[in-house]
């Protein structure tokens, strides 16, 4: 897989590959648990492996604030092989998910000049770097986020495209709850994409919403909120600081795209964005 990626991304990304291999080795020789690995993610994945998903999410055995899809995906190799999960193997699976994310990112940015700079920025983005080499769950939501953007970017006019986008958004939400922001974002994009064609807007929106809502709502109804009842402290509530946090994370994820177009931006754009960044921070300090 590593050799395939080197060939795919060509020589300018060899530095990324070297960094990637280096951090994989570090994750495998590190015997100590990270705090969230020890208290949250590893106990939860073991409980799902031993007791099953339904029993775990309905009990105190679910010890994490995030949604359960990452645990299910990371358990597939163990269910197939019959081996019990251990922390080093789980970290390695996360690294493979991170590698897959880099491949998706490559197809997103393959037409821009500064591929290396863009990949470099993503690689050292905190929501990528740490979960890629520890058993933290953020890397799964990030993968499905990038897949969603790749599907939207695809010029295919088939209505089935929007069903796949809905599935990808659902997978992102079932990996990390703040990706709920993608649902209204995609709907706004559909409004923009089809302009004043009400029939196409309604049909496309319905095709998108069927998988994105039908797959995500059941667990939130079961939990009576966006997190397991044990983690009501992490519950999302209407508050301006939650909005700015989501926008900050989304902006961090898309910084590679900004880096690719920065030379084309007008000075007025910088001024507008600088004002939008500073004003909420000054007024809505924690």
Counting DSSP H or I runs of 4 or more residues, the number of helices is 16
SSE ordering: HHHHHHHHHHHHHHHH
Assembly state of the chains shown:
single chain
What shape does the CA trace take?
globular
Q: Termini separation (Å)?
A: 44 Å
Rounded Rg = 20 Å
Number of strands: 0
* Structural class category: mainly alpha
Strand content: under 5%
Which blocks of ≥5 consecutive residues have pLDDT under 50? 280-286
Layout of secondary structure:
Layout: H1 2-9, H2 14-29, H3 35-51, H4 53-57, H5 69-81, H6 87-109, H7 115-123, H8 126-133, H9 138-153, H10 160-173, H11 182-193, H12 198-214, H13 217-223, H14 240-253, H15 255-261, H16 267-283
Helix pairs in contact: 2-6, 3-5, 6-7, 6-8, 6-9, 7-15, 9-10, 10-12, 11-12
Quick structural gist:
Helix content is 71%, strand content 0%.
Structural write-up:
The protein has 286 residues and is an all-alpha fold. The protein has 16 helices and no strands. Mean pLDDT is 80; it is low at 280-286.
Properties at a glance:
286 residues, mainly alpha, 16 helices, 71% helix, globular, disordered C terminus
């Amino acid at each position: 897989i590593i050799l395939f990626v080197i060939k795919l991304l060509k020589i300018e990304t060899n530095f990324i590959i070297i960094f990637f291999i280096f951090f994989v080795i570090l994750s495998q020789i590190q015997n100590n648990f990270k705090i969230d690995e020890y208290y949250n993610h590893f106990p939860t994945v073991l409980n799902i492996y031993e007791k099953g998903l339904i029993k775990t999410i309905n009990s105190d055995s679910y010890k994490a604030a995030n949604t359960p899809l990452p645990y299910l995906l990371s358990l597939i190799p163990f269910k197939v092989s019959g081996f019990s999960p251990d922390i080093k193997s789980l970290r390695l699976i996360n690294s493979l998910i991170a590698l897959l994310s880099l491949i998706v990112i490559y197809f997103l940015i393959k037409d821009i000049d500064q591929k290396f700079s863009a990949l470099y920025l993503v690689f050292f983005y905190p929501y990528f770097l740490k979960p890629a080499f520890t058993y933290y769950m953020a890397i799964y939501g990030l993968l499905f986020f990038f897949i969603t953007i790749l599907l939207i970017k695809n010029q295919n006019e088939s209505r089935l495209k929007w069903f796949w986008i809905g599935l990808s958004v659902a997978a992102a939400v079932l990996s990390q709850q703040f990706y709920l922001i993608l649902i209204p974002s995609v709907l706004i994009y559909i409004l923009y994409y089809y302009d004043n064609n009400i029939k196409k807007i309604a049909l496309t929106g319905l095709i998108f919403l069927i998988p994105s809502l039908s797959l995500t709502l059941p667990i939130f109804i079961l939990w009576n909120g966006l997190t397991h009842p044990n983690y009501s402290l992490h519950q999302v509530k209407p508050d301006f600081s939650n909005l700015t946090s989501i926008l900050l994370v989304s902006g961090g994820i898309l910084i590679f795209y900004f880096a690719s177009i920065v030379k084309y931006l007008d000075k007025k754009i910088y001024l507008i964005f600088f004002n939008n960044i500073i004003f909420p921070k000054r007024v809505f300090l924690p």
